[in-house]
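Please review the protein record below. Tell me whether the encoded fold seems credible here:
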Amino acid sequence: MNNNKMIKTMKSKSIIGAVLAAIFTIGFTTSCEDMFNIESSRVIYEHNHDLGSTADSTYTTTGILQCVREIADRYVILGEVRGDLVEINHLTKTSLRNIAEFNFEDDNEYLNIRDYYAVINNCNYALAKMDTTLAHNNERVMIDEYAAILGIRAWTYMQMAINYGEVPYFTEPITTVAAAEKEYPSLDIKEMAAELIPQLIPYIDYELPTFTGDNQVYPILQLVLADLYLWSGDYANAWATYWDYLTTNKNFNLSYGEENNLESFRGYMGLNGSAVESIQTLNGSTYSIVGAWDNYFSQGVSATLGYENLSYITMEESDARGKVSELASLFYSLDDTHQLNISTRMKEICGSQSYIKATLDKENKKTRNYTINVLAGGDQRRKYYTSQVSTDGETYDVYNKLAITSSSTSEISYYTPQVNIYRRSIVYLRAAEALNALAKEQGSDSLAVMSFNLLKDAYQVFFPQGHVLEEQLQQAFIGVHARGCGDVYLDTAVYVLKPNVIAQRLYNDPEQVVTFNDTINYIDELIIDELAMEAALEGNRFGDLIRFAERRNEPEFLAKRVATRKGQEQMDDELYNKLMDKANWYLPIK
């Protein structure tokens, strides 16, 4: 063992002892807090609980999902409050303010790692005790639950490593003080990926269980696996795994009526039915809404080609039912009581985009002609997950992406019904990221173009040889950028891979000679901006910035963006200098 690893291991011993020393015995429970309370009447002694029945496994898995709810809000708060898309205001409580300003010295309700380890240890217990050989009609009846719990554990460990830098890792259940006092290695995200990837690979083809009535409440193993490849720098396997999901998932059936049923394309995951426009009048023409953003965040809402939400953590509407999220009230209010604002930088990113609108022929079909910036405000998505609120004569924007009107009360109240983990567009964007990194690794222009087209015109990626049904497929397989910027596949001037456009973006000089590496960096910047516009407030932003900055070996990629939350002309020099030191990106373990 080298000296660095020895230091990590010694540190992890003290952490595990502090966090878990109170545990004497642990059973499966429906309350994850019980696992830290040896006097709880609901703790069942370890030797009494080999999970040898489907009822046992159901009860255990339900308890684990309850534990996951305890970290759902933190997934969003830690991922967004440290990023560049959120600003604090005069009402922001100290714990959130300190996170935003990267001040972690004081006790902070959001930094306690205890709840993450509640998930981990419950998963470890279930995986160790579950009888996966139990069969009925020659089918292994617990194997789906086993796979689901593997996914939960891997996703939770991944989040811990992203947020804390390196964390103690163990896979055996800790049920005694002696086990809590053992030495456990602390792993960073790449080391964690090396441990978790082999665990997931044998199980990615198993169906997730549906006994809860909703198999989308579990992290999707194939996407967790792809994310781990991406974080570990294995871009070939990351791209291959994302692409396999995009093209072979049976939940995404593509058809245009019985006469044109495209049986050969079953499994292809398109993005049609998911573009947004605003109702605006220009030169006497009125453009109507296509799609509605809040549909993406409502359980059971289906887009044309299937569900937009792929995996999420469900939250309750009232305390009487269980865990209620505080997210809606932190970001949204009608009376200026919210604590977190949409950042100026976020508005700048959206406002700098060009909206493309195709003209129509006499048969109301799109032509190759188009108009640039036919709708004001650039990217239209922000208008669907922000609101303008007026209080005391002042008008301001607030995020309402996580706020849904309550259905159980006559009063107007807002709550967060679910915290999304994976959506269709997130898969597209991470696939584009992996592919662009692979293009750089291999020096491949063609792979770089494919990455760009997942943003601009995904039809070109899915059907590179074209198709007789191009018109229909073009609209089904739009690029992610089209969700907020219209018919961008027609654009030959603005959203393009042209040297003068690349040079203007990177060097503010269209005459600057650009290299292949410049093209890669340009696509990277388009992807990170697209992740802002598409996935704002979904918990991934700071992790995305870390991943890009690490891959490029460029701390400034993260530091400059976070330090200009209040606008590109309002650089926070103190914060910038702090974030140029990567050690300050990560949370202390408390």
